[in-house]
Amino acid sequence: MSKSKPKQITPAKPRAVCAQVEEVPAMCPTCQSTDRTGYEGIIERQISGTKRDGTPFNLVRWLSCTCKGCGQRLRVRRFENRP
Ligand SMILES: [Zn+2]
What we know:
The protein has 83 residues and is mainly β.
């Protein structure tokens, strides 16, 4: 690589291109911790519907894990909407 060659600077793209979304992590009902072990077992079911907040889903997953805060066993239910 030649040192005389100017470094290519890519112009900043407008941030509006990237839609900001929020992911709510599962919270332990016992100690309110969101820190947990990796998922140990995953159950998937092709279930279509609409959540109470109006979000559509076509896949429901149950993920087993353990809370790192208090050791409570957790089963996280996750609603997904896949194309
Ligand atoms: Zn906990």
